[in-house]
Specification:
Low-confidence stretches of chain A: none
Largest sheet of chain B: 5 strands, antiparallel
Number of domains of chain B: 3
CATH architecture of the largest domain in chain A: 6 Propeller
Order of helices and strands of chain B: HHHEEHEEEHHHEHHEEHEEHHEEH
Low-confidence stretches of chain B: 537-541
Oligomer: heterodimer
Number of domains of chain A: 3
Largest interface: A-B, 53 and 74 residues
Structural class of chain A: mainly beta
Distance between the termini of chain B: 41 Å
CATH class of the largest domain in chain B: Alpha Beta
Helix content of chain A: 10-25%
Strand order of the largest sheet of chain A: 16-17-18-19-23-22-21-20
Radius of gyration of chain B: 49 Å
CATH topology of the largest domain in chain B: Heat Shock Protein 90
Number of strands of chain B: 12
Distance between the termini of chain A: 109 Å
Radius of gyration of chain A: 31 Å
CATH superfamily of the largest domain in chain B: Histidine kinase-like ATPase, C-terminal domain
Mean pLDDT of chain B: 85
Shape of chain A: globular
Number of strands of chain A: 37
Strand order of the largest sheet of chain B: 2-1-5-4-3
CATH architecture of the largest domain in chain B: 2-Layer Sandwich
Number of helices of chain A: 7
Chain lengths: 608, 541
């Protein structure tokens, strides 16, 4: 028995040593894994033409000019794929693709390996979907040398200019416009920033991409008017695909500054909601850093964009015999003219009306020649009975069409309008007083048209027959205009322009090719076009007005430009429907009866 | 058969080992047999070791389990968070061929990585795409996970789509660490990837080891303490018992006034008191019995002495009458002969009684001298030749050829042998009687064997009682006094020898006298067996 004692101690030691955490164990199944998701896209590769798609030279060149469109980082490889191995090895292009508009068709001559392409540079398309117009108009020729591959059928590019080229048609077909938004510096509204997103981007990756763009900042031309996201803002992870009608976004803590955090957070969420509006499910779950997730439901954010106030059917007006009159077949056709007292409604040449949620602003140019005057007024009552119009002093003669740029609900004093006077730009205030000249630098020629987007900051200018874009910024007691950027619409010269949507301008001018006057919509960067009235002969359009499309309007057309466009020529006012339709006295809702027979409605405008 | 041979070898070695073991452990075994103290302490140690060991093992195993399961729970919940995060991140990729997918996996791993690198290795996170060979496994920190993620694990997670866990010990960057490896499939829109989360169990392992050490040390201390306590307690009990035993030994050795010390009022005090009471009673009883025995022996001695004087007178008268009997009438003459015979018997009886009382009184003294025992035996048989002839018994002598010299009292030895041979002839029923004598260096043995009626079981001891007879109804042929064997036993004992009997009904009987060669030597063995060799062996058992 004495022997058993050490044995026992040894055994107990062994047992004890065996009862810790084991060094190795078998695989223990804890439970079933989560179920596999369902793919949203097809497994097929995107339908992009390759070198061997065609052996027709014209088509081949078209395909080549679309090859750079697609995934940004793979652009060079895709273009090289069209080249002979040697040409591909030598091909060292500028990495940022150029968007070009072909002037005429590429010149393909049988037997000549060289293809000549006349182009106009529209801009460069950055990775962030931003199309930046060139500083100077560029028009030139590219020469591409084609060769036949070893198989004797398919073609090779043997020599090409060292650029990645995308034609505007490829841009239109492979990309879609996607508007992102930034807050203006006054925090009163969102300013749209139009980008181009590949149609191939899976819908799940759109939010991540868009937020990446937002973090990267606005387009350079908007910078002076918008507020950037705070420094250090970053997307934590990716934005997961929408699940349970919720889009969850997790941003770094720096996204909301500590000062005025609730307001900043509210702005941030509205900015995000607007930027992701087309994808937005019921709920946006926004998480800042490690803070509690905030959930935002509903469409309350829509008010942050002034364009959301635009009606589906605009109230239309025209000037008839010196009086502002309503056009029939528009809402409230029998009501009084808002903000313009009836006794003041005389001797009117051009006018602009703008309404906010509570107020209506009016600006009338009356008289002509030496008695020309701009009178402005604001009323809280839409009937216009109690309104008084005050004259704006300090304007030169030769006034154009007034436009209201920034109109405010509660502070009429801060509302500002713009008017062209003898080729210069002037700003005026709603309470009258002296007009101020707005410096417009870098444009050549006289300003002939000015238009302000519903956001109140983006401006398009027609000067010297060219189209420019710029932004208005509030500075001191007035406004200042950033240096205008030249756009390259396919019209030359441009005679009139107006915003017809968040990313669209309706411009009128002479077509480059044949010198015919046409009215068309071009994107705010001048790249894409949507013809409205292709051929108006040679009747110069001196004024065009459009009622911008409401981005929240579900029946708005896919492009998001206006349904209502009117313009004037030297002797008449027209509606731009599928064909030009003249606005006659019969179109007026309540035409004043005491007008001469040859009086025609003029200066049509909308209650913006 | 080799197996059988091997077994045989093993058995042989086992036997050798066992024998050696037995040899070496003999003192231990003796101590075990003899010491209650040792037994109690050992049993307590064994019992408490078993008990403490079992509990210790249970506690240590349980705490290790608790530690492990807590960690598992933590990791499991952390894991589900990670899987959910990875899932949400990967939802943006509907296709596995998305070139951005690798970046997303990288970013996800980066995000999921805890980053807090403990001194002995932090957690490792890895996303693998077993089904998409184009996607490389992303691991952070970038260590070789082959030791951690076993093919079994990969099979369970990637192919069966199960969440699984495994404990692995791996040598990462020169540090051997125990890891709990957790694996879960991460569903994506195109299939699933696998997320592995490897958490070092260093803290838990250390805690488990500490608990185990604590339990072990405590257990050993407890066992030792219990042993000590058991030793002390047993000592408390055993010491008085030992004292009692010693006292009892002394009592039994005749020191009747030995008493235990009564200390206190507990059970041991009660035992001591009861023991003392018993000792006192015994002493009283023994003294009384001794007194009675002394009186009885004195009475016998006195009576014998007192009877001798008148007997002498009667004897003289009877001798006269006997010598003159021819002058009497036949009837009277016959009476005179009877008288003479009975007087002989009476005288013999009286002599025996006196001899016995001499033994009882302790006056018997050994008159030892170196004598040859062979002539003594021959003399005895010669003297009894007449009796043997009358009984028709042949006495056979088996004596050594050489003289058998021993330091004995020849008179007493002759008396013993006469008694034995006479009894044998008497009970031989006309069958031969064999007298055998043998000697070795230490002892001389004489056996007397008869083949008469024998002895019934139990009678071997009774035969030596005073006045005992095998069959009381039996006629007294030889007119023995019934004291012969008693005196013989006393004679043998006086020599420091033995007188023993064996008998079996129908097989006769054998008496053996064993005497030491040198007076005063202690007898160890007899040169002749008590049970005769001519007897069937099976009966002897």
């Amino acid at each position: 028995m004495r022997r058993s004692l050490p044995c026992l101690v040894v055994v107990s030691l062994l047992v004890l040593s065996g009862c810790g955490i084991p060094d190795e164990s078998g695989v223990t199944v804890v439970g079933p894994g989560p179920s596999t998701g369902i793919t949203s896209g097809s497994d097929a590769t995107p339908d992009q033409a390759t070198r061997t798609t065609t052996s027709d030279r014209t088509e081949f060149v078209d395909n080549y000019l679309a090859a750079a469109a697609g995934d940004y980082d793979g652009a060079i490889d895709r273009v090289k794929e069209f080249m002979s191995p040697r040409a591909g090895a030598d091909f060292k292009p500028v990495t940022i693709p150029r968007v070009i508009r072909l002037v005429g068709n590429p010149l393909v001559s049988p037997g000549d390996p060289e293809v000549k392409i006349t182009y106009e540079l529209v801009g460069t398309l950055g990775k962030n979907g931003l199309l930046e117009p060139p500083k100077e108009p560029v028009r030139g020729k590219y020469e591409i040398t084609l060769g036949t591959a070893e198989d004797g059928i398919s073609l090779y590019v043997l020599e090409a200019p060292p650029f990645l080229l995308i034609t505007d048609t490829a841009l239109a077909s492979r990309y879609t416009q996607r508007t992102i938004y930034f807050w203006n510096t006054e925090h009163t509204g969102l300013i749209p920033d139009v980008r181009y997103m590949l149609r191939d981007v899976p819908i799940e990756q759109v939010p991540t991409t868009v937020i990446g763009w937002l973090i990267e900042g606005p387009a350079p031309w908007l910078k002076s008017a918008v507020e950037l996201l705070p420094e250090g803002t970053a997307l934590l992870g990716k934005v997961p695909a929408i699940a349970n009608q919720t889009l969850s976004i997790n941003l770094s803590a720096q996204a909301v500054p500590t000062e005025g955090a609730p307001e900043a957070l509210d702005r941030l969420r509205r900015q995000l909601q607007w930027s992701l509006r087309t994808l937005l499910p019921d709920n946006l779950a926004l998480k800042i850093g490690h803070q509690e997730t905030e959930n935002y439901y509903g469409t309350g954010y829509e008010t942050s964009n002034a364009a959301s106030r635009l009606e589906r059917l605009p109230q239309r007006f025209a000037v008839y015999g010196g009086k502002i009159v309503r056009l029939s077949e528009s809402p409230r056709a029998v009501e009084a003219i808002p903000a313009v007292p009836p006794q003041a409604n005389k001797d009117v040449r051009t006018a602009a009306l703008s309404s906010t949620a509570t107020s209506t602003y009016a600006a009338l140019v009356t008289g002509s020649g030496g008695s020309e005057a701009l009178r402005v007024g604001v009323t809280l009552d839409s009937s216009g009975q109690d309104a008084t119009l005050r004259e704006v002093s300090g304007l030169p003669s030769g006034l154009g069409y007034p436009v209201w740029a920034m109109t405010s609900d509660d502070r009429p004093g801060s509302s500002i309008g713009l008017i062209i006077g003898s080729g210069g730009l002037y700003s005026f205030r709603a309470e009258g007083g002296a007009a101020r000249q707005v410096q417009v630098s870098g444009v050549i020629g006289k300003i002939t048209a000015i238009t302000v987007a519903p956001d109140g900051h983006r401006v398009a200018i027609v000067a010297g027959g060219r189209l420019y874009r710029a932004v208005l910024a509030v500075s001191g007691d007035g406004v200042s205009l950033s240096e205008p950027e030249l756009l390259r619409p396919p019209l030359n010269p441009v005679t009139a322009a107006d915003f017809s949507g968040e990313g669209w301008l309706t411009v009128a001018g002479t077509r480059g090719g044949d010198g015919r006057v046409s009215v068309m919509d071009v994107t705010i960067d001048g790249a894409l076009q949507d013809p409205r009235l292709a051929d108006l002969g040679d009747d110069t359009v001196n004024y065009v007005t459009a009622y911008p499309a409401n981005p929240t309007n579900p029946v708005s057309n896919e492009l998001g430009n206006a349904d209502y466009v009117s313009y004037t020529t030297a002797d008449a006012a027209w509606d731009a429907l599928s064909t030009p339709v003249r606005i006659d006295a019969a179109d007026l809702a309540q035409p004043p009866g005491d007008q001469p027979a040859n009086t025609v409605p003029a200066a049509p405008f909308f209650l913006n | 058969m080799p197996v059988r041979r091997a077994l045989r070898v093993v058995r042989r070695y086992w036997r050798v080992v066992a024998r050696h073991g037995k040899q070496y452990t003999a003192p231990a075994r003796r101590a075990w047999r003899r010491s209650l103290h040792l037994r109690v302490v050992t049993l307590t140690l064994v019992g408490s070791s078993l008990l403490v060991g079992t509990f210790g093992w249970f506690i240590a195993a349980q705490s290790a389990n608790i530690l492990l399961s807590r960690t598992q729970d933590e990791i499991s919940s952390s894991m589900s968070g990670k899987v959910a995060y990875a899932y949400s991140q990967l939802t943006v990729h509907p296709q596995a061929r998305d070139p951005e997918l690798a970046n997303t996996i990288n970013d996800t791993v980066n995000e999921l990585f805890d980053g807090d690198q403990a001194e002995d290795g932090g957690s490792v996170i890895s996303i693998r795409a077993e089904h998409y060979q184009d996607l490389p496994a992303v691991t952070l920190p970038n260590v070789d996970t082959r030791q951690l993620i076993t093919p079994d694990m990969i099979r369970t997670v990637a192919e069966q789509g199960q969440v699984a866990q495994q404990i692995r010990t791996a040598d990462l960057n020169g540090i051997t660490t125990k890891y709990l490896v957790y694996g879960s499939p991460v569903p994506t829109k195109f299939g699933h990837l696998e997320l592995y989360y490897m958490v070092p169990l260093t803290t838990e392992d250390r805690a488990a080891n500490q608990i185990r050490t604590t339990v072990l040390v405590t257990g050993i201390a407890l066992v030792i303490l219990l042993g000590v306590v058991a030793g002390l307690v047993t000592r408390m009990v055993v010491t008085p018992v030992r004292v009692a035993a010693r006292t009892a030994q002394r009592l039994s050795a005749g020191l009747l006034d030995q008493r235990m010390k009564v200390d206190g009022e507990d059970d041991l005090a009660l035992l001591a008191a009861a023991f003392n009471q018993m000792a006192a009673n015994l002493q009283r009883q023994i003294v009384r019995l001794e007194e009675m025995s002394r009186l009885q022996r004195r009475f016998t001695s006195d009576v014998s002495h007192e009877l001798r004087t008148p007997l002498t007178t009667v004897r003289m008268a009877a001798d006269l009458i006997f010598s003159e009997r021819e002058d009497f009438e036949p009837a009277v003459a016959r009476s005179a002969e009877l008288l003479q015979a009975e007087l002989d018997r009476f005288e013999g009886l009286l002599t025996d009684l006196l001899e016995i009382s001499r033994f009882d009184a302790g006056f018997a003294a050994l008159d030892a001298e170196h004598s040859d025992l062979v002539p003594i035996v021959r003399r005895v048989t010669e003297r009894l030749a007449g009796l043997a002839e009358r009984a028709g018994v042949e006495v056979e002598l088996r004596l050594p050829d050489t003289p058998v010299i021993a330091e004995v009292d020849p008179r007493r030895v002759e008396r013993v042998l006469r008694n034995l041979v006479g009894n044998a002839i008497e009970h031989a029923e006309a069958k031969p009687v064999v007298v055998t004598m043998t000697t070795d260096e230490a002892a001389v043995a004489v056996t007397v064997r008869d083949y008469g009626i024998g002895l019934k079981p139990g009678e071997e001891r009774l035969v030596f009682n005073r006045f005992w007879r095998a069959d009381p109804s039996r006629a007294r042929q030889t007119g023995g006094t019934g004291l012969g064997l008693s005196i013989s036993v006393e004679d043998a004992r006086l020599h420091g020898g033995w007188l023993e009997a064996w008998g079996s009904p129908g097989e006769g009987s054998q008496f053996r006298l064993t005497l030491p060669v040198r007076a005063g030597d202690r007898l160890v063995a007899a040169p002749l067996p008590l049970i005769p060799r001519d007897r069937p062996a099976e009966v002897s058992s």
